[in-house]
Amino acid sequence: MRTRLALVGLAILAFAGLPACRKKSAEPKPDLLANAYGAEPDWNDPQHIIPLSYTEAQGKRLFYDKCVWCHADATPAGPSNRSNLTPTPPLLNDGATLNSLSDDYVQNIITLGGSAMGKSAMMPPWGRTLTQDEIHELISYIRAIAQPPYQPPVRPGPKYSVK
Predict the structure, then answer these.
(1) CATH code, domain with 92
(2) Is the residue at 66 inside a domain?
(3) In this predicted structure, what is the pLDDT of residue 23?
(4) Which residues contact 136 (CB under 8 A, 6 or more apart)?
């Protein structure tokens, strides 16, 4: 009888301790890229991947076709021309510079060119080359890759330079 009780006691202890011994499976982290149409490595930290919506992915395509030569330090083909321009154009991920500009203002710079907006004459007008939808896609991409991250303003900014 004692042996039987001892065996039952050991079985109870073994089963009672079983869930405590089992490690809880970690909740899988949501894959931010699962629903993304594209991705862009953070230019400051290549380990950080920025997921892109469809509109932002279209803007990325336009950026690497039209803008990368002056607004990035490197292109898929090698170094950019940015360092040869005066004044040096901002990097398109430069949130410290571009985040303070309204979408309308950035749209006007792209559409009308730098000289029309009181900026560098080296920035050509793209208004007859790109559609308004393409310009909006490009602005979406600029906002997505901005470092520090872009925070939309509470109220819209000026369309034209106030300086």
Answers:
(1) 1.10.760.10
(2) yes
(3) 60
(4) 55, 107
